[in-house]
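Q: Structure tokens for this one, please.
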Amino acid sequence: MRQTLTEEEAFQKLIRHHQKDPQDLQTTTDLALIYIKRENLTKGQPLIDQIIEQDTNNTGGYLLPIYLELGLMYLSQSKVELAESKLEQILALKPVNLDLSDFYLNLGLYYAQRADGQLDPKIFFKKAISNFETVVQKYPQGQVYEDAQLYLGITYMLQEEKQLAIGILEKLSQTAKNDDIRDRAKTVLGNLKELLDKGDDAGKEE
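A: Here is the predicted structure, written as tokens:
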């Protein structure tokens, strides 16, 4: 409760600051980000429009965090086309040292979780793998680096790419710094090997 009250007090302070100085882009950006996180574009969009107009090429560094938060918001709403359009806008600005690992991870999860309901699930699995691999290859220091490896291994398993899955999961089960990730990798790996053993036994019986 104390944290909520503190956050609300800071929010009201931003509103008052913006009312006094509406041209302060830092305050405008901080306020817009809060509205985006609250999924309140009714109040947030005018602020977003101001930032786009005044920092079109991200010269001041205000535009990129807006696009990033909007993309994550759209992903949370399963509006993947809008999310990917924001990613394209981000990449067009050629960001330096911007960690997009969470964005790519969530894109991967979106496609992986919806693959089974598609006429051609391979297309969705392929997109999921591409996004997970982007995290692994480009953001080895990111917070979701090990998560991406876990989901990549699981997706390969679902795609019947069992040896690729085993390679990833075996390494992760031994090297993951996150205890939960390491335990989950061991569990999935154990289940996968058990399935392979049963398949071998069935083949021998035939």
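A few notes: The chain has ten helices and no strands. The domain at 1-94 is CATH 1.25.40.10 (Serine Threonine Protein Phosphatase 5, Tetratricopeptide repeat).
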